[in-house]
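=== Structure Prediction Worksheet ===
Name of assembly: unnamed complex
Input type: mixed (protein and possibly other molecules)
Chain count: two
Listed entries:
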Amino acid sequence: MPMHVVVGTSLFQILFTCINVTVLQSYMNHTVDFILALMLLVGSAVGAQIGTRIGKRLKAEQLKILMAVVVLGVMGKMLLGLLLEPDVLVAYAGGH
Amino acid sequence: VVWPTSRHASSLPWRARKWWRGGRTFRRDVDRAPAGMMSVARIISIVVLGLLLGASASAQRRERQARDGNVSVEPERIGVDLFYGGLAPRVHATVPKGYQVAIRLMGKRGRVELKTKGKVWGVLWMNVGEVTLESAPTAYLLATSVPLAELAPEAELDRFDLGYGALARHAGPEAAAFEQFVKLKQQEGVYRIDENAVRVQPFGSKQASATVSLPLPARTPVGEYTVDVIGFEHGHGHEIGTASLRLEQAGLVRALRSLAADRSLVYGFAAVLVAIVAGVLTGLLFGRKASGPH
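=== Predicted Assembly ===
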């Protein structure tokens, strides 16, 4: 199958899965935060445009290095979170 | 400058009243004075009038407070809308002269389930268990006129739920977990003790007014809160009065919450619709026309 057909088809089927899950989460669990979703949407829409423009000015190797630095940075933060003693030794149960 | 109305004229002293009604006594003095002196005299009169009216308004507020009850909170209702960033309601109370004062704002008590963190394999800090606090308030703000230790002995403070030690005794057997829970709530800003924050000012021969602002952060849960004022004399506490404060959702936040709770299916489809419309709009705003298959 040609690659461009794969991308479009995959996005199309994900759309229905997302609609289904969003409606069910709203109906069953009441866990869809409308305002938060809108803020994420605006942030990602604007961020994607900035990212695209910056990406065009960088070489492929520079992009790889940048991506690796971001991934390593997140990994380092998570590792520190596990190794250093937290300020508070309790957290809310139940996903708060 | 506060300009008096005719309604206020009766509460003014005799000389000022004469001036206000265009009485002869003041005019005679002014007529003799030169022009510069006249304007100075007028400015002084206005300042004096302003002070008198201010004092009168303050006295009226105290009288109203004494008549309506010992404790008042302003505002009594706080609307939490989309742009709510916290508020500091002001508490006024009338207490007997010579009393030290503790003002406590407390939310409803309830069970709180917590995950406890501990070391795994001696290296990693992870969730290692669960603990339940039987009775912990949603918010706890305490302000006192003197340090808590000087207010009363520990047993007396416990009797009025003053201080984290008193709260811990209600929370159940998990004292260590409660201590950590207090830290968690302090980080959120909803548990707080401010010593020496209550301003006590005597008025009249037997009374004093106690005032404080209690800062409620944006994360304070909505609901009903009680504000209790306790007066202390020689280490013994006396209930002065209670007022209530209500935090409630307002505007768009309230509308969305009621839609999500009462018509969850409609809410779900609306969320999907908004997401699709937002996606189309983003495409229209930032998208470029495709120049053929990739």
